[in-house]
Write a structure and sequence with these properties.
The chain has helices at residues 4-10, 22-39, 53-60, 71-79, 96-105, 115-127, 166-175, 195-214, 241-251, 266-269, 302-306, and strands at 17-20, 42-46, 65-68, 87-89, 109-112, 132-139, 161-162, 179-185, 221-223, 259-262, 273-284, 289-293, 312-314, 322-327, 336-343, 351-354, 375-378. By secondary structure, it is α/β, with parallel strands linked by helices. The protein folds into two domains: 4-18 and 271-381, Beta Barrel (Lyase, Ornithine Decarboxylase, Chain A, domain 1), CATH 2.40.37; 22-269, TIM Barrel (Alpha-Beta Barrel), CATH 3.20.20.10. The structure holds ligand LLP. Ligand LLP binds at residues 46, 48-49, 67, 90, 150, 187, 190-191, 225-228, 263-267, 302, 306, 359-360.
């Protein structure tokens, strides 16, 4: 909730900026900590969702690990206090330099996506006279029922190792001396709101457990990835973290000695962030009125890229109900945050909050049109 008192403080600050409600973040982290401690799960926060140093510091202070997809993310995580032994490194295209640096840093595990990648890791580890811990990211062919750009575990996905290739992987591993297989890993997509999707993942995972056991292979790490969705319609509602844990506890058949790992991103950081913008102009269109704001797709690309819906609130006005297309200043028609939405009467200078923007907002900002990157403002400082 962004109260009138907080809005008053925004007057001093240049827009657009990300506003992070750290009490909301702490409450989410408290829930995640309680659930993961109770269940004995290991959480690796997905740094790609938001790599703001202050956010990373707060999350690392809870003792969570990190899930990274580049060496720069690993370095940022370590800088913010995450311990290398609790960092996992994912991605279909890890470069040699990134692998070398990660080996040097002594990360927990590489989540591997292909045989050629495993061969390169083995070779680079041999040069350092090390053994690299790896988990196999397996493509379980599960439809995540989310936007197609963030569906990652179906047959056509570039991600993960196909189950029909697992025999070859195991054979290859028996020939390599500098990699140690410690786990299986999945990530089937993001913004998943149907719990039944996660149930399907658990059932597939159990099948694969049997496959590995029948070959005499024990994997201590069972990593279910991220993907838990948030409620973009109701920005003040917390994500269903407890329900998610209950489901995993109920449906995953763990073998003694195994630990469940997870990599939540959006469900940790999505809710607490809002993009705050000022209205520049109200312009008459043929069928609509445009509220042209000073934030654009360079600050928050999700609506342009995934047709994502973020709730928009006018923090300065409560009178009347009008319809507006809320658009940014960037020279692209896709620079539109919402079409024909109801808002109170909106005028130049009003503050608009684009809610639920903590995840994949600031992290995906660009300087297209040579715009400034958005700054960040934290509730603790106001
Ligand atoms: N683990 C892996 C291997 C991933 O690829 C991802 C996200 C996560 C964990 C974290 O997923 P989450 O809990 O945040 O759903 N830019 C898109 C989302 C891309 C997600 C990419 N992978 C968006 O704005 O919706």
């Amino acid at each position: 909730m962004i109260t009138p008192k907080i809005t008053e403080k925004f007057r001093e600050i240049q827009t657009p900026f990300y506003y992070y409600d750290l009490d909301v973040l702490r409450s989410t982290l408290d829930i995640l900590k309680k659930e993961s401690d109770n269940s004995g799960y290991k959480v690796h926060y997905a740094v790609k969702a938001n790599h703001n140093p202050r956010i990373l510091k707060l999350i690392s202070s809870y003792g969570f690990g990190a899930d990274c997809v580049s060496w720069n993310e690993i370095a940022a995580a370590i800088n913010a206090g995450f311990r290398p032994e609790e960092i996992v490194f994912a991605g279909v295209g890890k470069t040699d330099r990134e692998i070398e640096s990660a080996l040097n840093a002594g990360i927990f595990c590489f989540n591997c996506e292909s045989i050629p990648e495993i061969e390169v890791i083995d070779y680079l580890a041999s040069l350092q006279k090390k053994s690299a811990r790896i988990a196999l990211r397996i493509n379980p062919y599960i439809e995540a029922h989310t936007h197609k750009y963030i569906t990652t575990g179906i047959e056509e996905s570039k991600f993960g190792i196909n189950t029909w290739e697992l025999d070859n992987v195991i054979k290859k591993l028996s020939e390599l001396n500098n990699v140690e297989l410690i786990g299986m890993h999945f990530h089937i997509g993001s913004q998943i709101t149907r719990m039944s999707v996660f149930k399907s993942l658990c059932l597939k995972l159990n099948e694969l457990q049997n496959w590995f056991s029948s070959r005499g292979l024990f994997l201590e790490v069972v990593n279910v990835g991220g993907g838990l969705g948030i409620d973009y319609e109701n920005p003040d509602k917390y994500p269903p973290i407890e329900e998610y844990f209950t489901l995993l506890n109920e449906f995953i058949d763990l073998i003694p000695g195994q630990t469940i790992h997870m990599e939540p991103g959006r469900s940790v950081i999505g809710q607490c962030g809002s993009l705050i913008s000022r209205v520049l102009y109200i312009k008459n269109g043929s069928n609509t009125q445009f509220a042209i704001i000073d934030a654009g797709m360079t600050d928050l690309i999700r609506p342009a890229l995934y047709q994502a819906h973020h709730k928009i609130e006018n923090l300065s006005s409560i009178e009347g109900i009008y319809r507006y297309d809320v658009v940014g200043p960037v020279c692209e028609s896709s620079d539109t945050f919402a079409k024909f939405i109801e808002l109170p009467e909106t005028k130049r200078g009003d503050f608009l909050a684009i809610r639920s923007a903590g995840a994949y907002g600031e992290a995906m900002a660009s300087r297209y049109n040579l715009r400034e990157l958005p700054s960040s403002v934290f509730s603790d400082d106001l």
